[in-house]
Amino acid sequence: MQDHASTSFPAVVTANGTRDLASWIGANRAAVDETLKDAGAVLFRGFDVPGHDDFDAVVAGYGDENFPYAESLSNAVRVNLTPRVFTANEAPPETAIFLHHEMAQTPIYPSKLFFYCAIAPDGGGATPVCRSDWLLERLEAEVPDVVAKFETLGVRYTNVMPAENDAGSGQGRSWKSTLSVETREAAEARLKELGYDFVWLEDGSLRPTSPRLDAIRTLPDGRRVFFNQLIAAWRGWKDRSNNPSKSVMFGDGSPIEDAHMDAVVRISDEITADVAWQQGDVVLVDNFVVMHGRRPFQGKRRVLASLIK
Ligand code: FE2
Questions:
Q1: Are strands 41-45 and 282-286 parallel, antiparallel or unpaired?
Q2: Domain 11-308 is of which CATH architecture?
Q3: Which terminal CB of the chain, N or C, has fewer other CB atoms within 10 Å?
Q4: Could you give the CA distance from residue 301 to residue 119 in angstroms, rounded to a whole number?
Q5: Interval between CA 190 and ligand 1 midpoint (Å)
């Protein structure tokens, strides 16, 4: 196994000269991408990014195609501030959001994410980040049979989509919003097209189950990553409508148990780094390599996000 102690994670780029991050990031795109490839996540600190329009300009300056929230199958309730920028998650401050690759529980996910701190929290509220390739290396060394099982079987995810948006839940987006439909018939057609099974519940909510999705991926450069939503599903989907032991299963429908997840949870905790936000910070994350989450917080924390196709 490689020793990763020498790799700074996340990488930090500090303003030196210009404080206009939008023009700096466009002019230095190749260097930024090189750093991102090496570190998986880059924190830009000390630049002048006062508000969400300035953040939008930074993402535009970087120059890749937007991945609109409306088209995603994300289960989080979000509010768009510009076509590119939205609130990261409306879940209440005391709710921890555990590590995940953005939208890895669906067949449609962004390749990169930008985060921006508009208001730093009074306490807590860091964004934990974890290298998924490093996690997989450790798992292969310690529990190769578990890795083989995830790799062979893949995973399926299930959750309840309420009839109306429920901002009190980390996963409260309604089925109408999630699927961009107005009627049950249109919802069913969309789910079939995506390969989902589904059940309608008595209160008008919908329980879809994803097709088998890979739990482990090999990236074009050969790196292998633990690309899935297992940690967030296992540790976090404990809100009013989701039972965590039933929210994920192996691709053949058999249950995932503590024995499969203990090492995953323990090692990911060990190798996680925290981004402790300062106002104006911007973070760029490679969604295929790095998982992210949200620590509980006190105060008014406002972290915005933007996704890239
Ligand atoms: Fe996320």
A1: antiparallel
A2: 4-Layer Sandwich (3.60)
A3: N
A4: 5
A5: 23
pTM of structure: 0.93
**From the CB of residue 145, how many other CB atoms can be counted at a distance below 10 Å?**
8
What backbone torsions phi and psi does residue 159 show, to the nearest 5 degrees? Answer: -155, 165
Quick: pLDDT tens for 279-294. Answer: 999 999 999 999 999 9
pLDDT tens readout for residues 48-104: 999 999 999 999 999 999 998 888 888 777 888 999 999 886 678 998 999 999 999
Cβ contact 169:240 at 8 Å = yes
Rg of the chain in Å (alpha carbons): 19
Instruction: Determine the distance separating the centroid of ligand 1 and the alpha carbon of 288, expressed in angstroms.
Output: 13
Tell how far the Cα of 104 is from the centroid of ligand 1, in angstroms: 10
CA of 88 relative to ligand 1 center, distance in Å: 7
Residues whose CB is less than 8 angstroms from the CB of residue 7 and which lie 6 or more positions away in sequence, other chains included: 38, 39
CB atoms < 10 A from the CB of 252, how many?
10
Residues within 5 A (CB) of ion ligand 1: 102
Contact 135, 264 (CB under 8 A): yes
For 83-123, give the DSSP string: SS-EES--S-TT--EEEE-TTTTSS---SEEEEEEEE--SE
Q: Where are the domains of the chain?
A: 11-308
Residue 131's DSSP bridge partners are 290
- Give the list of residues 6+ apart from residue 134 with CB closer than 8 angstroms, or none: 4, 271
